[in-house]
């Protein structure tokens, strides 16, 4: 096959990929945006028609003020859960990945088996609720942070382990000869080199945790513990006759993760492929 034909095929595949992405992601977003800007009468039958009068700001204010500013509380709770879980994932995920990669032993093989099991075995909801109740963490943000941390740890450890494999052991040995202690080697030598994969973990896991619906529904009941995705569930009955407000709520929940993905998509790809390419 000639070079010209190869380039033409790549161009065709690129256009097909862009068209699929446009249909799957852009068109639904435009649909939500248009209906979020309509009046309640116009949005009663959702469609792609242009709003007769743009009421984007009025609908936004109405959604934010609904149920004593529940959406603001949901944003606060989701942010606390996301920041807390991501902090634990970065610190402990990097530590476990470093030990698994740099300290091979029979015990580490057992740990690695548990890490893989965390990816393959589905979580058990009822026993987890029993554990949280026994620890006094059920219906608390602290308990939800630990749940998100536990569910995301396996994936995080595997990412860090693959990336640490690309860092030469000579750096560890040189720091050890200079008198550095093991914790100093990790925090002052290795951890600063993990920036690409750390950015990947922060972005991917933050989007996953922020958009999580099922886990807060199971482990974090109560109106005072509402998260952004739960607001869609709660507002669905309230706004059944005001579809424009429901679409506005969907828009407000969708935009933050979308912006994070748009601005950090290159870092996501770089962090997830670096270990595979170099390892």
TrEMBL record:
Cellular component terms (Gene Ontology): plasma membrane
Pfam families from the UniProt entry: BPD_transp_1 (PF00528)
Sequence ranges assigned to domain ABC transmembrane type-1 in this UniProt record: 75-264
CDD domains tied to this protein: TM_PBP2
Example of a GO biological process term: transmembrane transport
Subcellular location: Cell inner membrane; Cell membrane
Residues spanning the membrane: 12-34, 74-98, 110-132, 144-164, 185-210, 245-264
InterPro entries assigned: MetI-like, MetI-like_sf
Keyword entries, A-Z: Cell inner membrane, Cell membrane, Membrane, Transmembrane, Transmembrane helix, Transport
Superkingdom assignment: Bacteria
Membrane topology value: Multi-pass membrane protein
Functional description taken from the UniProt entry: Part of the ABC transporter complex UgpBAEC involved in sn-glycerol-3-phosphate (G3P) import. Probably responsible for the translocation of the substrate across the membrane.
Family the entry assigns: Belongs to the binding-protein-dependent transport system permease family.
Subunit and partners: The complex is composed of two ATP-binding proteins (UgpC), two transmembrane proteins (UgpA and UgpE) and a solute-binding protein (UgpB).
Protein name stated in the entry: sn-glycerol-3-phosphate transport system permease protein UgpE
Species of the source: Martelella mediterranea
Gene: ugpE
